[in-house]
Model the fold of this input.
Amino acid sequence: MAPAAGSGQPDPGEPGSIFTDCADCPEMTVVPPGAFLMGSPDSEGGRMDHEGPQRLVTISKPIAVSRFEVTVGQYARFVQETGHDSGNACVVWTGVEGGEVVTGKNWLDPNFFQAEDQPVVCISWNDARAYIDWLSRTTGKPYRFLSESEWEYMARAGTTTRYFFGDSEEEICRYANVPDVSAKPDSRGSNWQYVSCDDGYGVQTAPVGSYAPNAFGLYDVHGNVWEWTQDCYRDSFVGAPTDGSPWLSSECEVRVVRGGSLSAPAYLSRSAVRFFGALEFLDESAKEALGEFRNFNLGLRVARDVE
Done:
């Protein structure tokens, strides 16, 4: 992995600064500190109970966040250099509602075309952790997952609306890859919920940065792929940290995922939406045969502290 121009220099500390630690590293931007109301109010359209109760969360220091989701090309460098085994089975879209486990499908072939500039999918939480650990070792910088509260803070970028661009889904094709009219032919009569616009991508990921960014300069925080976070999943925010730190436990069989995806209806791409990603296949026979849970709509965004 080649060093980036200016590597070894002090981190840019100004909010909005853009930098990369190496030629093949994710491009990072500095997100300013601040406070925000995390979760959704009872009145929000599409709200689910586990999005509350709302609480004030303070992010006390700037953090660097990858402008885009980790790409196929970036993940490929990691696999090439380490030989990491990312498995040989994934839940992919085959026309079966929710997808189905298919042996032979993986991050290289999630059952749709993937170029180097598209977000990597079919990676487990442990795959994501291995990538982050490798990135940290290679660059000497403290890369990590975003905590769930950091994720919502960076996605909202100072807004309180359902999406960073407002409350209406009418123009969501400008901002997010969600099921739209282009997905109808490939989704084969499923019960997916479609928005009336058309971004032309159908049932596949879009190249990162294909849509308009939020006020922090971050792309694809709505739709495209769900993103792993550090936090263990709980079904309520009662007792959750208020300082931006991850909420962990000794037993953590599921981790929080954020952001919605190419197959999730638009209301599931709201800023407050949270779901859980299993660390192993939940079906016992699949768990024994296939091990860790990987999905065609699940990827990663990375963060690191600004030193």
Confidence is low (pLDDT under 50) at residues 3-9.
